[in-house]
């Protein structure tokens, strides 16, 4: 089968790959993104979007959608250490220390003075569908979930990559000027000799994601300053969801990443599942069929000089 030619191939549809796709689209750079999973991540993972990230999202017209879902600053801009969240024992609910954080409280003025937008809090499992939607709207037919990179080779002035449709097993060769390894360091980096520096595995983290209305404790905390968690922070995950994260020493062994105990946001009073197909947006409908067929259509060339001239 004839190779598809594309200026940039992005491998990985996590936060980095999807963001890179949006940024390239906005620069008019044609590209193809492949992600081996059928959909975006199902675990919350990172949840804090720092100010610089939000600035970049703002420049690319994503910040508004993020802020519409994110927990507002007044709900996460403080950190408290407390003996317990609940309970009536003599040591329960005792405040140890609290401080403004993440640009909240008294920090807000300082943060606001150095940027047009403040930090936000939105776990990755809710952020990635937003990024995916924007990526697909700006590059219809070329954001290919359920497709993986199986091999690639550096041919000097281009890269040859083999992609596999995970569902059908069909393989396709792609010739790209650049390959972005946004695969979470799994394959592309090690394959080109990039190594992790410094000691790995400093800490194992367990994330327990649950849905529960903790707002009464939060409200009480905000008025009487007596609530929070101790070693495991509990905080609003978004404007209407809550999350709790615990850490344990690396020496306590490997841990797995649990999936939500039940589907989230399905007819039980929770917000709609963001993992459902995105609605049609101003950039067009989500394309149907195998995107690789669409990817064969001629597209915009990469602006600028040929790669060889840039060396
Ligand atoms: C449980 C957990 C909690 C975390 N909590 C935090 C936190 O609180 N704060 C924080 O800053 N960070 C946190 N992180 C780390 C953060 O999630 C990662 O740094 C971030 O996801 C990296 O983004 P990425 O896009 O580079 O890679 P990833 O999110 O790993 O995405 C890479 C994507 O590439 C795909 N892929 C891999 N190989 C191929 C291939 N051959 N072909 C096609 N697709 C491929 C994968 O399926 C994946 O979707 C957490 C991570 C985990 C697992």
From TrEMBL:
Keyword Cytoplasm: no
Zinc recorded as keyword: no
Keywords in alphabetical order: FAD, Flavoprotein, Monooxygenase, Oxidoreductase
All copies of domain FAD-binding, residue ranges: 5-223
Feature: compositional bias, Low complexity: 224-241
InterPro entries for this protein: FAD-bd (IPR002938), FAD/NAD-bd_sf (IPR036188), RIFMO-like (IPR050641)
Compositional bias per record (Basic and acidic residues), positions renumbered to this chain: 287-296
One GO MF term: monooxygenase activity
Region described as Disordered: 222-311
Full protein name: FAD-dependent monooxygenase
The species this protein was found in: Streptomyces caledonius
